[in-house]
Amino acid sequence: MVGERFGAFKAVARLGYGGMGEVFLAEHQRIDRRAAIKVLMPERTRDADAVRRLFVEARATSLIRHPGIVEIYDCDVHRNGRAYIVMEYLEGENLGQRLDRVIALGWVDGCRVGRRVADAIGAAHDKGIIHRDLKPENVFLVSSTGLPAPPETEVKVLDFGLAKLLVEGVGGVATAAGSVLGSPAYMSPEQCKGEPVDHRSDIYSLGCVLFEMVSGSPPFVGARARELLAAHKLRPPPSLRAVTPHAPSWLAELVARMLAKDPAARPQSMGEVASALGAGPEPDDAGSRDAGATAAPPRPGPTPGPTSGQVAGRRPTAPTLQRL
């Protein structure tokens, strides 16, 4: 696909690929502007549901119009039959890549990133859009220098491919009763059960991401997707302070509320979450500013069971699923 035209953009290099598609760096042919182009694999383009998800992603992100949501420029089907979307090109790294390098951000920077994500997803909720796949790999830390981005920089939320659009007249990704879509380490109990979800499911998922940013591990870890689904549905999450004693009590209480099994017991809006993360006190001196931030590898420690919180040595690799 390098050298191919996508509207006014020309693909100049492949940035990456996965089971669903490839991503290319592209340049506009008349103005000095770069873009990233996500192109479905040929076999996925023959899957009507995969094409639908790609175009739902384009519709959802274009509806939100928030600086914390990646911008979409175009979507279409290439002359070779492969569906694609053209989006804003970002330099930096996703949060998953950063956590792979540093294990944990510490509670101060974790709160800063979490607040930006809550603000962006809150804007999506205001438009009737539920993300349904919040995880570190879908949070991007933007760097204007090309160097690894510190968490104080701009934060962008990516990949609304599983988004549920509740806007009248605009369809989202339909799921059959009992089917499960998402990333098991970050899915709400109701999502794990295949039940209908609302905006509070995203609040639970952000609670999992916030737990990981502060402690170095999501609240539940396991080698099998079904173990994780069962843990979210049945097991109480570990206390953030139990696995990360330096975390302040107000933050541990907020995370515990976000991880409540009952959606009615969680914060009821992302605005509430963002306000709480912004109102919490920060350390007074620069020396304690990144309290809890951990360079890889962290201190050795006991290895927990398959559904407990902190893990030692490196960030766990969570199983993924598309449909159960």
In what order do the strands lie side by side in the largest sheet?
A: 1-2-3-4-6-5
Q: What is the share of helical residues?
A: 25-40%
Runs in which pLDDT lies below 50 for 5 or more consecutive residues are 167-179, 284-289, 295-314
How much is the radius of gyration in Å? 19 Å
Task: State the CATH topology of the largest domain.
Answer: Transferase(Phosphotransferase), domain 1
Given helix and strand content, the structural type is: alpha+beta
| Fraction in beta strands | 15-25%
CATH superfamily caption of the largest domain: Transferase(Phosphotransferase) domain 1
The run of helices and strands is: EEEEHHEEEHHEEEEHHHHHH
Oligomer: single chain
| Assigned CATH architecture of the largest domain | Orthogonal Bundle
* Shape assignment: globular
The top-level CATH class of the largest domain is Mainly Alpha
How many structural domains can be distinguished in the coordinates? Answer: 2
Q: What is the CA-CA span between the terminal residues?
A: 32 Å
Biggest sheet features? 6 strands, antiparallel
What is the mean predicted local confidence, pLDDT?
81
**Would you count the extended β strands for me?**
11
